[in-house]
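A common beginner's mistake is to predict each chain separately and then try to dock the pieces by hand. The better habit, illustrated here, is to supply every component at once so that their relative placement is modeled jointly.
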Amino acid sequence: MDPTQISHLALDIGGTLIKLVYFSANGDYSEESRNGCSVVKGRLCFAKFETRKIDDCLEFIRFNILHHSGVQQPNGEGHDKLYVKTVPREAFTYLDGQKKFVEIDHNDLYPYLLVNIGSGVSMIKVDGDGKYERISGTSLGGGTFLGLGKLLTKCKSFDELLELSHHGNNRVIDMLVGDIYGGTDYSKIGLSSTAIASSFGKAISDGKELEDYQPEDVARSLLRMISNNIGQIAYLNALRFGLKRIFFGGFFIRGLEYTMDTISVAVHFWSRGEAKAMFLRHEGFLGALGAFTSYNDQSHNDLKPHHHTVQRAILNCSGHNFRHIPVTSNLNESETIECSINLV
Amino acid sequence: MDPTQISHLALDIGGTLIKLVYFSANGDYSEESRNGCSVVKGRLCFAKFETRKIDDCLEFIRFNILHHSGVQQPNGEGHDKLYVKTVPREAFTYLDGQKKFVEIDHNDLYPYLLVNIGSGVSMIKVDGDGKYERISGTSLGGGTFLGLGKLLTKCKSFDELLELSHHGNNRVIDMLVGDIYGGTDYSKIGLSSTAIASSFGKAISDGKELEDYQPEDVARSLLRMISNNIGQIAYLNALRFGLKRIFFGGFFIRGLEYTMDTISVAVHFWSRGEAKAMFLRHEGFLGALGAFTSYNDQSHNDLKPHHHTVQRAILNCSGHNFRHIPVTSNLNESETIECSINLV
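With all components supplied together, the output reads:
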């Protein structure tokens, strides 16, 4: 990739990961022009680095001359105002193994709750374009899953831990309602026998040590514990403010079916079917995309942490001003998507 | 203790512990009589067994002939209706190391939220005498604390784990807001630099193994994670139903200052000072006391699990019908309190 073609850098520095979004023009500058806008074609690129290795990230930026930002017109004048287009089939629900894309009426989008699951979890009430407030959060997030997971299973990475959890059985360590009430449902209070009464509760009395458990079972219990808890707290906050939609994003999810399923079931269970969890295909880069799309926003001139910009990606991906970007797969690191930028 | 003097047995069989309350008359039968009631003097006794060792409990009951229940009058006629008296200074708040007893106006007691922290957590909305509903709960309870604690620290018992946590420092493993934002408070969204951003989040990137951490630091992080989470979910549920008071009970608490402090801080933080956590001196035996005081209640003829009776102890300890039982210390296993029973 020719560094001179790279511009428009946005960073989201989190507790665990630095997410980086940048635009790389492909040289087809001003090939198109309509509605008084010049159009630059290129690709939107994504990269991530561990926050503790921030020097690698800075080196990457230096090497690619990303810090010389701004799209240059051939005449050398800079343009700062840009729009990224809407992404079709961005939001979906996930239940019983079925992914279902949700068509959102933009006139009926607000208010919604955005739950960003990073190392910790932030919950942001979004009332309109640029109108948002961090109303809640929880310290039990992706960092807890990976942190506890590493200590308990000796896994080295998030992916490894998730892969493990996929093959585990949480009933080995979790104490179920049926374990207490003798295997029968306890419908009077709405609890089935397979509901988890106490996460890791069986470890109390099994007389087993850590080594006696299969790491995959431990990973599975951990994933269910964290996902369930986030789903419950999100629902309670949505209820509190009368929010109909809950969007879940952040690197914890990463399009993983079991994670999404657990969160969906939690929201379904606690809301008695009245609320639905929705997921986003660009989850991991929400903050960076948000920063990217609010590039020329005056209010972003002073340094702000990622929480403030997290919700803008959705806003911008679903607003009226945007065209479709063709996206063929979920976004992950090292992936790029074709993209046009309108210069106005 | 003379087995023939023992009567009125009540059991609360939970996921981890069986709690047992029974009355032992001291032979001063009918020494007093007023308001048409005979009064039996004696002691209220408490015992607990591990649920997995239920045979020990049954043996204890058989040995003490507790299953021959009902207070016998000298003429051999049985009395079934009994009242236990109110307990003074039962409820208290705990904040900044200060225990403060709360005088509750019985005309302004309801509705309240009762949070029973056993292996799992049940949250019960109590609207009046006998009017209650299980509205929520969480699987992250005492069983999670001890279960995960055992796996992570090789502790053998709850007491040992709590003692450990007392000497630990959660900042070693928890990722704090200050760790992400460079040590400064982030007051815009109401987060201080010492707030926990991600429980166990530092374990992600420390490059340490479980053995490299001090068990006391792990125990402390675990205790804060669970206590915080319960406080938050309890507050959100209280808010949902407009409940002013939140009582916390169950064996998880056991009068432990740090636990109560963490729960109090969580409720204070999430409610922005508007709600207060309250604790009870008889926390561990709430369910068993409830069953005990509803001894002759027709609705209790069929077997019911402990959740249904949990709230009755408070009701009965604070209702109009009761006199004071002198209680000099917190109730724990093997402790007894002097008690009189009115036979009507």
